[in-house]
Design a protein that fits this description.
The chain is an alpha/beta fold. The protein contains 18 helices and 18 strands. A six-stranded mixed sheet has the order 6-5-7-1-8-18, sandwiched between helices.
Length: 401
C-alpha cells in the first residue's frame, strides 16, 4: 500500500497553518479610510491632494459622521434596528453599494489617525491599540496616550483638517467635549474649530449649522457609544441594538438638515465580532507558557497582536506562535508583515520598531487575551482589530442635498 504523501507542514490530515499572504489586505490607496478625506478635500480644491476614491463626486460642503464600531456587516445584519441606514446601503462608496476598508489594525486609534491624516498606519505610526515605544521600551497606549509621549514627535504629519483650514475651507469638528484636548485629537483631528456637545442630537444640529457656515465647508462629527455597548455587552445585546437604533435616528436627523450643495458621508473606524467566553475561543497568553516563552512585551489587542521578543528569541517566538496559533491566526514576522503591505505601502523609519517582532491577526472568532496584564480588555464581549470582513468593512453611506 502506498504511504501518505507528506506536505510542507506534515501529513495530509494535519492542520495547515494560514499563509500570512492569504490575509485580505485593506484597500490602501483607493478604498480605505486613509483615502477618504484627501478625496473629499481634493474636490474642494485643497492643494496637495488628489481623489483616491474614484467613485466619489465632489461637493462644496462635506460632512463626515464617523460612528465608532458601525461595521458594514453589522448594518446589513440589522435592518429592523437601522431602517434608515439600511435604505442608504446602495449609496455607499459613490453609489456602488460597496464598503471601504478600515486598515490594519482595525482599531480606533489607528483608524482615526488614518482618517485625519490621510495616511496609512505605516506612515502615521499609530499602528495598534498598544505598541512599543522604541525609545523607551515601554508599551504605549495610543488611545489613552499612556505613558505620556510628546504628540507631535509621535505623529508629525499635518492633518487634512489643518490643510483644509489653511486653504480657506470652513473647517470644524463637533464631538463630545471630553475629546477636545486629547493628544489623539491633537495629532489626528485638529484644524479649524472644535465644538463640544454632550448629546448626539446636539452634535447633529450643530454639525448641520457648521456645514452651512461657509461656501466650502468640511465638518467632522463623531459618536462613540455604539462601540462601547458592543465591547461591554456584545452585538446580540439589547444595549447594542438600542444604540444602533439611536444612531439610525441621528443620521436621519442630520441628513434632513443638510444645507444646499452638501454631501453627508456616514462611516466608521471598524466593525466588531463577539468572541465566546470559553477556552476554545479565548486563548489566555498569561496562562500559556508556550506563547509566553521568549516574549518581552505583548502589545496590540485580542484580535491583532504585536509580540515583542526578548533579543535573540525573535525566530523562536515566530515559530512557536505559528505552530500554536497558525490555524486560527495569520502570523507573520515584522518584515514579512511590512512586505505584504499589512500597514500600507511604506513604513516610516520611526514606525518600524513600533511593529511587533511577530504580528498575529485573528482569522476565526477567537482572541488572544491576557487575563493578568489586561483584565478590562479580557472581559470584553465584542472585539475588533483584524482583517476579517466583519472588522475591516466600514460603510461610506452618502446623502446629498
Amino acid at each position: 500500500m502506498a504511504q501518505p504523501t507528506s506536505v510542507a507542514h506534515g501529513w495530509p490530515d494535519d492542520p495547515v497553518p494560514l499563509a500570512p499572504g492569504s490575509a485580505p489586505l485593506p484597500e490602501y490607496g483607493s478604498g480605505s479610510l486613509a483615502d477618504l478625506l484627501p478625496t473629499l478635500v481634493a474636490g474642494q480644491g485643497v492643494p496637495g491632494h488628489e481623489a483616491r476614491i474614484a467613485e466619489l463626486t465632489p461637493a462644496d460642503r462635506v460632512c463626515v459622521f464617523l460612528v465608532d464600531g458601525l461595521g458594514w456587516e453589522q448594518i446589513k445584519a440589522h435592518p429592523d434596528e437601522a431602517p434608515y441606514l439600511t435604505s442608504l446601503l446602495g449609496s455607499s462608496r459613490g453609489g456602488t453599494g460597496r464598503p471601504l476598508t478600515a486598515g490594519f489594525p482595525a482599531t480606533t486609534a489607528t483608524s482615526l489617525a488614518s482618517v485625519g491624516t490621510g495616511r496609512a498606519p505605516g506612515t502615521h505610526g499609530l499602528g495598534g491599540y498598544t505598541v512599543r515605544n522604541p525609545e523607551t521600551g515601554e508599551l504605549m497606549n495610543q488611545l489613552k496616550w499612556r505613558p505620556w509621549t510628546p504628540p507631535k514627535a509621535w505623529q508629525p504629519y499635518p492633518t487634512v483638517f489643518q490643510q483644509a483650514h489653511a486653504a480657506g475651507i470652513h473647517t470644524a469638528q463637533v464631538s463630545s467635549p471630553i475629546f477636545e484636548q486629547t493628544p489623539l485629537t491633537q495629532i489626528a483631528l485638529s484644524g479649524g474649530t472644535f465644538h463640544g456637545r454632550l448629546s448626539g442630537e446636539e452634535r447633529m444640529d450643530l454639525a448641520a449649522e457648521q456645514l452651512a457656515g461657509g461656501d466650502r465647508s468640511l465638518v467632522y462629527t463623531y459618536y462613540s457609544e455604539l462601540d462601547g455597548a458592543g465591547h461591554r455587552f456584545g452585538l446580540d445585546s439589547d444595549a447594542w441594538r438600542g444604540q444602533l437604533m439611536l444612531v439610525d435616528r441621528l443620521v436621519q436627523r442630520l441628513a434632513e438638515q443638510l444645507p444646499a450643495r452638501s454631501a453627508l458621508y456616514v462611516t466608521a473606524d471598524h466593525g466588531m465580532v463577539d468572541v465566546p467566553f470559553d477556552e476554545e475561543h479565548r486563548i489566555d497568553v498569561d496562562e500559556d507558557w508556550e506563547l509566553r516563552a521568549g516574549v518581552a512585551l505583548l502589545g496590540g489587542e485580542g484580535r491583532a497582536r504585536h509580540v515583542y521578543a526578548v533579543p535573540g528569541a525573535e525566530a523562536d517566538v515566530l515559530t512557536c506562535w505559528r505552530e500554536v496559533l497558525g490555524e486560527q491566526f495569520w502570523v507573520a514576522g515584522r518584515d514579512e508583515a511590512i512586505a505584504l503591505g499589512w500597514f500600507g505601502d511604506t513604513v516610516d523609519e520611526r514606525v518600524y520598531g513600533r511593529i511587533g517582532d511577530v504580528v498575529a491577526a485573528a482569522h476565526d472568532d477567537v482572541a488572544l487575551v491576557a487575563s493578568v496584564g489586561e483584565p478590562l480588555e479580557t472581559r470584553m464581549t465584542g472585539m475588533h482589530g483584524s482583517m476579517t470582513p466583519a472588522e475591516q468593512f466600514v460603510p461610506l453611506l452618502e446623502v446629498r442635498s
